[in-house]
Design goal:
Blueprint: E1 2-5, E2 8-12, H1 15-22, H2 24-29, H3 48-57, E3 68-73, H4 78-93, E4 102-107, H5 113-127, H6 134-141, E5 144-148, H7 154-168, E6 173-178, H8 185-195
Parallel strand pairs: 3-4, 3-6, 4-5
Antiparallel strand pairs: 1-2, 2-6
Helix pairs in contact: 1-3, 4-5, 7-8
Length: 196
């Protein structure tokens, strides 16, 4: 698999998801310009031209044969509530992502799956506007999970790896979104690389 960084690090095995991620999702969420990741294998650099082309050529992925998991660091923050989760919810509604797409939120707040889902229910109802449908959201929310962890603590990344392996058996697309201060990007990528 070919991972890349934008303030997203992804292990993408689904071309349609890759095109959507670097095209439409970048536009919706204001993802920062791509950057190389040193010390963790080859990371292709995505230029602005790559992003524009991806957005024009994106198409609806069908039912994915492999799971897709979004891991959001800074999961209890404002960007996640206002932009990321509503964008992912809309993408699933529009069938631009597989319906079984999972979200794993990672943040220092002491929450469990249910309390995290409740927080996101309230915020998505507000920020998704007329796109919010109770039944559709309820189905989507069943694939939202939460893990308490500190982005600066290397041991927490071992727990993250174990959690993800239990969720997807080590297969499929994992997309890591850093909804954090830029000053935390380097330590996050270092810990991700170290933990495998």
């Amino acid at each position: 698999p070919q991972p890349f960084v934008a303030n997203v690090l992804a292990t993408c095995r689904d071309d349609a998801i890759h095109r959507w991620l670097v095209g439409d999702f970048r536009v919706q969420c204001g993802i920062a310009k791509s950057m190389p990741l040193s010390g963790a294998g080859h990371i292709p650099h995505l230029s602005r031209d790559d992003s524009r082309t991806a957005g024009r050529n994106s198409h609806t992925p069908g039912k994915s044969s492999m799971p897709t998991t979004f891991i959001i660091f800074g999961a209890s923050g404002d960007l996640t509530r206002r932009k990321l989760v509503p964008a992912l919810y809309r993408a699933v509604l529009q069938k631009r992502l597989p319906g079984d797409t999972r979200i794993l939120g990672v943040s220092r707040s002491e929450l469990d799956d249910e309390s995290y889902r409740q927080r996101l229910t309230e915020s998505t109802r507000e920020f998704a506007g007329s796109d919010f449908e109770e039944e559709a959201w309820s189905s989507f929310a069943q694939n939202i999970h939460y893990l308490a962890g500190d982005i600066t603590n290397a041991d927490d990344f071992d727990t993250l790896r174990e959690t993800l392996d239990a969720m997807d058996s080590g297969e499929g697309t994992r997309i890591f979104y850093l909804a954090t201060m830029p000053s935390l990007y380097a330590i996050a990528l270092e810990n991700l690389g170290r933990s495998g």
